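Supplementary Methods, section 5.1.

A reviewer requested that the exact input to the structure prediction be made available. We therefore reproduce it here, unchanged from the version used in the analyses.
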Amino acid sequence: MSQKIKDADLTRREFVATVGLAGLAVAGANVTAALAAPEPPSPAGKATVVSKRPLGKTGVEVSSLCLGGMFDTINNQLLLKQAMKWGVTYWDTAESYGNGLSEEGMGRFFARNPEARKEVFLVTKLQAKSGNFTARLDQALKRLQTNYVDLFFIHSVTNIGEMTPAIKDWAAEMKKAGKIKFVGFSSHTNMEDCLLGAAKLGWIDTVMFTYNFQVLNNPKMKEAVNACSQAGVGLVAMKSQAGRPGKHEVGGEGKLEVIERFLKRGFTDKQAKLRVIWENPHIASICSQMPNLTILSANVAAALDQIKLTQEEFDSLQRYALETKAAYCAGCGKFCQEAVGGAVPVNEVLRCLMYHQYYGEPELARLTFAGLPAGVRQRLTEVDYSRAEQACPQGLAIAALIRQAWELLA
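The structure derived from this sequence is encoded token-by-token as follows.
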């Protein structure tokens, strides 16, 4: 803790600057829990639960907060139980999360709580590049100790062309076999183009995509979200906190304004980042990594609170987004990748760096980095990134960030 916190004559502005920028970290903090403990059970003894929203044209409603499974679910069974209690019944996992251990942890929970499986809307994901979908899906179902998933995603799509007719036919076969109910994909890269493509395909049920205060006002993003909504494609937001790949905290007056404004309302800037997404009725749910009860508690509290953001609060978040633009990778990978002749998927490398630096997940960062083709990793220090930096709409210092990724993760 900094010396400022220890000073008896600490001003409110100093407190906001210090606690807001350090104490309210992604990993959670006591001050966050104190500000945002979920509401107690009602007098009738029934706990308040988060609301549900329709998932596109599927006819299903899902909890507006989704439990992202990129954590040790095996040793966090109590957290899974508490998520159920608070109505967080949309659970998202993947084959690649802990090499199947995330699925295994959820499977153990279902084995011990068989009635819970009927309440949980369960999602898992497979990377397309490895093929052999049927066998891998069967293995995932075995780990999950269930005979079906409610939603199946092709993981980390960067181009709508990856959703091939063969995948469409395979998904139809799996639906007929009762192994999946709905199908879609997740996307961290070129999200707008992927969404626009999904709206035209006609067989995509749901898309999970990077969507946060940094990108939601982009005109093309608005167009893409509206197109999917009109086509009945269910939309799930992820990367809601707009994590940056760089190591150092970025933010000046805009950051202080956001923190101070929301603290006065009784919630944190991180909760505000969730709320601004929920203001969009087209978004069915926000998938959030909640590896401990502090973060789960804070996010549930944000979901339970029905207070709407004011226009001034929207504006302050937008000013903060503009102020921190040059520190955020917006996932528009086609620009930087074309600029380096396709030699390096720049934004995928920066995503690995973000896991390490912003989320404090070095193991996840290394696993994701190791999943990149060996040739790509070898070329990282050989490529000239000057044209990529010129092409980057965000103005990122790409060369320095790639070098940092190499030093940390290679």
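The chain has two domains: 30-321, 329-409. These observations are discussed further in the main text.
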